[in-house]
Design brief:
With 204 residues, the protein is of the alpha/beta class. It contains 7 helices and 9 strands; from the N terminus they run βββαββαβαααβαβαβ. It has a 5-stranded parallel sheet, with helices on both faces. Strands 2-1-4-5 form a 4-stranded antiparallel sheet, covered by helices on one side. It is globular and about 45 Å long. The structure holds adenosine-5'-triphosphate. The site of adenosine-5'-triphosphate has 11 residues, from α1. This is ABC transporter ATP-binding protein.
Length: 204
């Protein structure tokens, strides 16, 4: 489903990604691991089209992955940072808008379930900017879960989650795999990587 071939990224003549290659299949998870600055976020950004690699190729279901391709838009759910929201919409409005935009048939029900799973029911009418940092992380993950998805791309999804949140996350990601979703994540959480990842990709 996802093929990464020879991905190379340089910043000011410093090579951050040096011909990284891997395949990821449906129902499997690959974890990018490595120290701070080893290129995990850069790789995720190149995969989803938020950054452009200097060399190499990313293919999705056989074709070069293009962010604007409707097939990619329908299948790719990514959470790269917590600032990617409409500032004027409440938590519940934002999630419902996303679900509707992706053609979910009962957006209200799906959103209510995700809010409950993420323990954000009491915060659903707040603006995202007013959430605590851990709640904002949950909200960012929620945005991936209210829409259809075949590939989840997550940058340190464990960040700022409490103990219960991390346990929930590991179980949720295992469920996603069981449903046939492919997961590419960057993580510093060894426990999460052990629980979820089929493959580890060491950077740096
Ligand atoms: N736009 C940019 N311009 C210059 N250097 C950059 C740019 N983006 C990233 N870098 C550098 O590329 C390297 C890799 O950064 P990246 O954010 O991918 O690391 P990471 O593995 O995700 O780190 P962390 O574990 O700290 O999140 C770092 O040295 C960073 O400073």
């Amino acid at each position: 489903m996802l093929e990464v071939q020879g991905l190379t990224r340089r910043f000011h003549h410093v090579t951050v990604l040096d011909a990284v290659s891997f395949d990821l299949h449906s129902g499997r998870a690959a974890a990018l691991v490595g120290p701070n600055g080893s290129g995990k976020t850069t790789l995720l950004r190149c995969v989803v089209g938020a950054d452009i690699a200097d060399d190499g190729e990313v293919r999705f279901d056989g074709d070069r992955l293009v962010e604007s391709d409707p097939r990619v838009r329908a299948a790719l759910a990514c959470a790269l940072d917590d600032a990617d929201f409409f500032p004027e919409l409440s938590v519940v409005e934002h999630l419902e808008l996303l679900a509707r935009a992706h053609g979910v048939s009962e957006p209200g029900d799906v959103v209510a379930e995700v809010l409950s799973d993420l323990d954000l029911v009491a915060q659903q009418d707040q603006l995202p900017i007013t959430l605590s940092s851990g709640q904002r992380r949950r909200f960012t993950l929620g945005a991936c879960l209210v829409r259809p998805r075949k590939l989840l791309v997550l940058d340190e999804p464990e960040q700022r989650l409490d103990v219960a949140g991390r346990a929930w996350l590991a179980e949720k990601l295992r469920d996603e795999k069981a449903e046939g979703c492919a997961i590419l994540l960057a993580s510093h959480d060894q426990q999460l990587v052990d629980a979820v990842a089929d493959t580890r990709i060491e950077l740096g």
